[in-house]
Amino acid sequence: MNIANEDNLPEQVERQVPQPVRTGTMLQRGSSSAAIARMEQSWELSLRERHAMRLIVPDDVSGGMSDAFRELRTRLLALAAGTNNFVTMVAPIGPGYGGSFVARNLAAAFAFDEAKTALLIDCDFRRPSQHKAFGIEPTKGGLFDCIEHPGANLGQFIYQTGIPRLRLVPTGRTQEMNGEYYSSINMQMVIHQMRKRYADRYLILDGPAIKGSPDARILSDLADFIVVVVGYGRDTAATINQAVATFDPSKLAGVVFNQLP
Question: Which of 203, 209, 193 is nearest to 223 (CA)?
Fold first, then answer.
């Protein structure tokens, strides 16, 4: 696929104060379309803001980028063969290849469907970017805090993004973390619990770069599907094949060629 760009009831409800200060707190748990419809949306990005942030929109008459992400979403749904929800990891071959952009817009594509929700989890502790992309200040913490405090209410680390039905778990505290965090029992519990909050919620993991570290391969153990992001024209076929071979072939959903500016 070619994509042009760069880079039980009830719990408290996910909340976020209006712009310009964007912070998050609790999420209501549910397992049906009715529960999804009750998700609080205290603010929403305008079309102009979405375009400025290079985010796809549902009514893009020009097609192009929105259609490309819809196609990727459709492929993942077909591979899942009717599964209510699943976990997809997006991993770029190298830094600066637009992996976070692809993860962000893939999550937005899932959120287009009013009967589904998407949860974008920033798992790139070396280069976290999703909170910046959405203009969110993660004052309550994020994924790091979920892992370090397994008894905490995970809803406090889920933030609104300004896009209906799309939520974000940022990395939270930024620090160097090794692959053992990704393979820890706490991390496994976090992903499992996040997935269970809504039966129709699709988790998108914004993963670390494949080159130079085993982190992406370790994190892939928690995913049902993997999407590899390649910088168009930057890698040889041999390099791409080597990166793809890093993962379980039964999980590989495809390769996205990201046309960098």
Answer: 203
CATH topology of domain 2-54+68-259: Rossmann fold (3.40.50)
- Phi/psi at 258 (5° precision): -95, 120
Contact 123, 206 (CB under 8 A): yes
Residues 253 and 79: their CA atoms lie apart, in Å, by: 8
Taking the model in full, what pTM does it have? 0.85
Name the residue among 123, 71, 97 with its Cα closest to residue 229.
Answer: 97
Cα dist from 201 to 7, 13, 195, 237, 259, whole Å: 25, 16, 7, 34, 29
pLDDT digits (tens, 9 = 90+) for 17-60: 333 334 443 344 444 555 565 567 788 999 999 999 999 998 87
| Per-domain boundaries in the chain | 2-54+68-259
Q: Are 167 and 110 in contact (CB under 8 A)?
A: no
Torsion, CA 189, CA 83, CA 28, CA 51, rounded to 10: 100
**Could you give the CA distance from residue 114 to residue 79 in angstroms, rounded to a whole number?**
21
pLDDT tens digits along 141-187 = 999 999 888 888 888 999 999 999 999 999 987 666 666 778 899 99
